[in-house]
Amino acid sequence: MSDEALQYARAHRDAYLDDLLKYVAIPSVSAQPEHKPDVLRAANWLTQHLNEIGLDSRIMPTGGNPVVYGEWMKKPGAPTVLIYGHYDVQPAEPFDLWKSPPFAPEIRDGAIYARGADDNKGQHMAHIKALDALLRATGELPVNVKIIVEGEEEIGGTNLPLFVREHAAMLACDCVMISDGSLFDISRPTITYGLRGLSQMEVTVKALARDVHSGHFGGNVQNPAVAIAQIIAGLKDAQGRVVVPSFYDDVRPLSTDERAEIAQVPWGPAEVINESGALQAFGDPDFTANERKGARPTLEINGLWSGYTGPGGKTIIPAEAHCKITCRLVPYMDPQKVIDAVQAHIRKLAPPGVEVSFKDVHGGIASLIDRSSPLFQAAAAAAEATYGNPPYYELEGGSIPVVADFLSVLQKPVILLGFGLPTDAIHSPNEKYSVECYEKGIEASVRFLTGLSQK
Ligand code: BES
Ligand code: MN
After folding, report:
1. Is the dihedral of CA 91, 96, 98, 102 positive or negative?
2. At 401, is the secondary structure helix, strand, or coil?
């Protein structure tokens, strides 16, 4: 069954690529209200696409952006896999750093350049094309398939967790398959068994009723930009450790065995520099780069602004200063507890004469996946047959919030097998997805679904 489908996919590679190009051309940026119509257009396009392939599909409302749901349940007795993806994308700004426009996909050097090409349209499209190839080549699927593609992943939406709870019966399955991450490299797959959670907030430090003359009042009032700098400087030490009291209290410790397994992944300071463009690798010296990536929590400033930032000078003391903070959490940490601890520490660090307030406060827990289920072997075997080597097992630093909901509501293993590359520049200008990654993703998916039917 898989050979015929693989042949079919190879024979139709141009059409498969074309469909992905059409999909990534839709600017479904969930963070930006002006793109709401595009978000809906992406959902409708995908629903229709799934219907054309032969899945029974529909667009389903949530409290926010709709969910696209499709299924093929014609194999009674066979396992059921739930495939998950997200059709929303990160904002593409700053536009001037893109070599080709983010929503006018261009193929250069064998890669598709577009926002969402890797994260996540190209990756769930690989699964969809695998379904198409199997259906066209053999007239059926080897297992029952459900697919859910959401539109609020990139904004940490709160509607999907609710949707999953309300539609637990519809989503019931034997395992969940998610491709929303990366390979180690094109010849080495990874299976992710843990994802970090997130606690986030925006901080406002206010010192004045309005911006004032910096000469007339300078020396007699607090400057909120200085105050916020002092606050931020008090959150971490020079080595990158978070100094918020109790921050590390609940962190899951690594066993010697797990440390040894993580140490096998050849990812260190050189790879950090190569993949991020950092001037230097930097982090808590008590842990390795691999451990810091997925097994340790972080606190980062995502944005910081105050006063006048336009051309030339402006002699003011700004009224307010702002920053956005996110903490990445590891298993056993409670997002609300972290929020409370960080806020308490910020209030303590605030100098006299300023008022601190918080908004957009959210949290989501980390995930840890028990990989003892035999269904993981189907994924590992499919990955090895496709990429030439057995997978590494990794703790990922990024977050896919719904994984925790799937684990708690569906109580089934979630298999995270990424189809992208670490150098794909997700969330950055010039995001790309190599055509080879797309085609190998289709092959891996065909092999996984076929292998699953033998479990
Ligand atoms: N695909 C990423 C998660 C990811 C990143 C997996 C890197 C593997 C490697 C996902 O789309 C993402 O970016 N998630 C957000 C979630 C957040 C907005 C709640 C993230 O991690 O920032
Ligand atoms: Mn993302």
Report:
1. positive
2. coil
In sequence order, the 6+-apart residues with CB closer than 8 A to the CB of 268 are 281, 288, 289, 290
| Beta carbons of 419 and 117 less than 8 angstroms apart | no
CATH code for the structural domain at 2-195+366-452:
3.40.630.10
Nearest residue by C-alpha to atom 9 in ligand 1: 181
Gap between the Cα atoms of 25 and 34, Å rounded: 16
Determine whether domain 197-252+294-362 maps to CATH 3.30.70.360. Answer: yes
- Outline which parts of the chain fall under CATH 3.30.70.360: 197-252+294-362
Which residue's CA lies nearest to atom 17 of ligand 1? 156
Rounded distance between C-alpha atoms, residue 347 and residue 351, angstroms: 9
Domain(s) labelled CATH 3.40.630.10 in the chain stretch across: 2-195+366-452
pLDDT score of 157: 86
Nearest to 109 by CA among 444, 423, 449, 454: 423
Whether 180 is in the pocket of ligand 1, judged by its Cβ within 6 Å, is yes
Q: Which of the 8 DSSP states describes residue 431?
A: -
pLDDT of the residue at 156: 87
**How far is residue 58's CA from residue 56's CA, in Å, rounded to a whole number?**
7
Residue 161 beta carbon below 6 angstroms from any ligand 1 atom: no
10-residue mean pLDDT series, the chain (455 residues): 94 98 98 98 98 98 98 97 98 98 98 98 98 98 98 94 98 98 97 97 98 98 98 98 98 96 95 94 97 97 97 98 98 98 98 97 96 95 98 96 97 98 96 98 98 91
| Short-list 295, 304, 348, 309, CA closest to 326 | 304
Best residue among 28, 86, 119, 329 to mutate for probing ligand 1, ranked by most atoms within 8 Å of CB:
119
Give the C-alpha separation, 367 to 356, whole Å: 32
Query: Which residue CA neighbors atom 7 of ligand 1 most closely?
Result: 398
181 lines ligand 1 (CB under 6 A): yes
What does residue 41 show for φ and ψ, rounded to 5 degrees?
A: -65, -40
CA-closest residue to ligand 1 atom 6: 181
Determine the pLDDT at residue 278.
96
